[in-house]
Amino acid sequence: MHMTRRTLLQIGAAGVLGAQLAPLLEAKPARRARVKSVIFLHQYGGPSHLDSFDMKPGTPPEFRGIYRPMQTSAPGIQICEMLPRMAPHMDKVTLVRSVRHEMRNHNSAGYYSLTGYAPPTDDQRLRDSRELFPAYGSVVDRFAPAETGTPTFVSYPHVISDGSITPGQHASFLGQTYDPFFIQQDPNGDDFRLPELSLPAGITAERLNNRRAMMDLIDRSTEILDISGRARGIDAHYQRAHTMLTSPRFRRAFDLSSEPLAMRERYGRTTYGQGCLLARRLVEVGVKFVTVYFAATIGGQSIVSGGWDTHGFNSVPMYPILNDYLLPITDWTLPTLIEDLHVRGLLDDTLVVWAGEFGRSPRINNIAGRDHWPQCYTVLMAGGGVKGGYVHGVSDRVGAYPSRDPVRPEDLSATMFHLLGIDPHTEVRDALNRPLPLSTGSVIDGILR
Q1: How far, in Å, are 41, 56, 425 from residue 125 at the CA level?
Q2: Do 80 and 392 touch, CB atoms closer than 8 A?
């Protein structure tokens, strides 16, 4: 049966792309941007601040753990001895050691960390929904989009979940037009490529442009784009895909095989390591917001995969997980990314944010693990717009609560938007037509340079 484009659009609108019409947005003029791009390294599972960037060596053993602190290139800043490659680069880093909130479950805290908006309830059963707040990158795509030919928001290589998909990974009520360009392939795989960015055999860019012109003519004659907001969303996706198909510069960014072998080894031949290398290549071609997920799940059982959930399941202590997997990968890849951006002259224009959804409890539990702890944790920031060799906020004697300059996730979102030239108080209307600010937080002026 022959199907017209109108029919296909109607089917797509009712099915796969059955989202509500993106509501009216109240845009404000863009501010002067301090950075061009953000690389958001999301550490799902909740890294232990006490075993990484906010150590408490003077506390009793049941608090301090087994690791010792080591000096770094930044006077007065110590980090875990398991991060020796990171230590020389701490002069380029701001540590925010006083982040706090109240969400103790991975899905609700994860949503908070990906959007800067507190969920309606602290519930592990919080489900992904188009009614919740959009991801950071989707907000950037709406209010400060990248130049034509490059997507604004790219995320990979996982859709993170803990029992169910964690909310906050897409555009939500902004509409699917602002969803991320999502890549589920493994950047470390020998066959890593993006087939959707490859033109079919016999189709040249000129021929594709001719087809697009013909379809535009059909659209105008049938006024199809005026019939349905959903159809407009579909067409926006089509236009972006068309632009990227004909953009050799963007497609080349995904050709990791063109990188020198030594550089690929420097980042680490892991999914996360090559994902961070890809992030550098994406900001080089103008992508504004890149989210790299460390793992698809919170982890906990394995010492060779998964995220930062170090309760100590099945009587397995957290230290093999940290020793053999989490800290070595972090120490191999994070300093490489920061140094590579610095050497290439990209760090001043790129903000790197390393953050989980919460931290870990000061007291080690009876199976040698640390439990969920949103009351105080550390977020690392490096590069554009923020100070180097700087600590903002102080946690108390055991790392349980902020004792000075508390920071909330919405303050982090306000700061990122501000640095990208977006007024964090700009209003957007949600699915119920309620006006909401892009961020309810305040810019962390103390970390800005």
Answers
A1: 24, 34, 30
A2: no
What does the alpha-carbon distance between residue 419 and residue 166 come to, in Å, rounded to a whole number?
Answer: 26
251-258: long-range pairs with CB below 8 Å, 24+: 251/194, 251/197, 251/198, 252/285, 253/278, 253/281, 253/282, 253/284, 253/285, 253/287, 254/192, 254/193, 254/194, 254/197, 254/278, 254/281, 256/187, 256/192, 256/281
Q: Is the link from the previous residue into 157 a cis peptide, with omega within 30 of 0?
A: yes
DSSP annotation of 422: -
Instruction: Please state, in angstroms and rounded to a whole number, the distance separating the CA atoms of residues 112 and 408.
Output: 10
DSSP 155-182: EES---EESEEPS-SS-GGG-GGGS-EE
- Residue 443's closest CA among 405, 416, 404, 403? 416
Burial class (CB in 10 A: 0-12, 13-18, 19+), 201: exposed
| Angstrom distance (rounded) from CA 282 to CA 289 | 9
Enter the pTM of the model.
0.87
What is 132-148 written as a DSSP string? SPPPHHHHHHHHSPPPT
Q: What does the pLDDT look like over 71-117, one tens digit per residue?
A: 999 999 999 999 999 999 999 999 999 999 999 999 999 999 999 99
pLDDT in tens, 416-437: 999 999 999 999 999 999 999 9
Cα 194 from chain centroid? 20
And the tokens for 241? 């895909």
235 versus 433: which is more confidently predicted? 433
What digits encode the pLDDT tens for the residues 138-153?
999 999 999 878 999 9
List b or e across 154-169, with b for residues whose CB sees 16 or more CB atoms inside 10 angstroms: bbbbbebbbeebbbbb
Please say whether the beta carbons of 352 and 291 come within 8 A: no
Residue 6 is inside which H or E element, if any? helix 5-14
Q: How far is CA 213 from the centre of its chain?
A: 36
- CATH architecture of the region 29-194+255-447: 3-Layer(aba) Sandwich (3.40)
> Residue 16's pLDDT is what?
35
The model's pLDDT over 171-230, given as tens digits with 9 standing for 90+, comes to: 999 999 999 999 999 999 998 987 555 555 565 656 555 655 555 544 554 444 444 444
